[in-house]
Amino acid sequence: MSAPRHPSDTSSTRPGLRERKKLRTRLDIRRATFRLVADQGWDALTVEQIAAEADVSPSTVLRYFPVKEDIVLPDEYDPVLEGALRERPASEPLLESVRAVLTAAMRRSLDEEPDEVLLRTRLMLEVPAVRSRMVQSVNVTSRMLCRVVAERTGRDAGELEVRIFATGLLAAVLETTLYWAERGQRDDLVELVDRMLRTFEGGLGRIEDLDG
User: Fold this and answer.
1) Residue 204 pLDDT more than 80?
2) Which of 52, 112, 119, 130 is most deeply buried (CB count within 10 A of its CB)?
């Protein structure tokens, strides 16, 4: 993937005013949540507190995030990553495209939102409900990645090999993030992701070379 666009970037594909307002509200709620978690922890945090901190109603919080754990999941980046993958050269090996996009996205997040990244991964490690919700969200991202893999390889998005590749890759990303958190977030996360991709490539090979 090429360096993914941040949701606030301007481009020819920039969403309309209504969508930008919705995205801004989501981000305001998320940032308010992270501020409160940093001050008082996760378990005692209520939707009412989040709403007050974000200056919205509790019903607005629940409309955007049906459960509290959803607030800390960076789901708005899925379309951005999907678009970035599609911008990579069609002749480029798929894992090289994934490496370019994923490492660029991680580096940008660490540069622009370091405190949120650190806190999110700590919550994934320490709060079972957050970790469980993150695992569930992988299924949604996996469907997106399956579409891209299918387009790049000429396969069907529902094929077993495509699903294994997409799901396995995202599970590896999640496991790498947990590994980083377990080690006190001392390592370079981008280097760990690159290391994970080399391991993944060595273990599963190129999906382009798999027999369907």
Assistant:
1) no
2) 130
